[in-house]
Amino acid sequence: MSAMVISWDVPVNSGSAQDAARITAFQLWEQLLRKAENPVPYVPAITECTVLERFPGGFNREIIRDGKWVFQRVEIDPGKSIVYHQPGDLEVESIVNQVGRDDHGGPTLTISVNLAPEGIEKVIRESRFLEAADAYFTDALRAVVDEIRTTVGELAGQPVAA
Question: In CATH, what class is 4-155?
């Protein structure tokens, strides 16, 4: 069976003229590193995180997501992406957070999900699986971007657009 990747891409800045806290690609990257270390404020489905072991270029962690323990091997490509490998997960092999740029040079956040064989089978067999995955990751991405906007605004001491 071939690989299947699903991804979502959003600009980090709201684009509103009232958006006082403009986020740079560097600030986005710093926030993604914070999220890797402690995702609890960023991802509502994650209620606990423990870093188990560090190694050059990343670390291993355990999280509680949707009430279940999940082991992740986190690999960091500085300034570009963070890959959360999920060995043992039958549906999702990895989740990638990647910093990009939109057509106007503003930072974007892309979340890509690399499905494992059972996840691919579910996409083929169950039409609602893809809809549920889309809803789940769209909500997660929205929460991550909202937290990044709030945190960067607070760190800069500037008002943050809603």
Answer: alpha beta
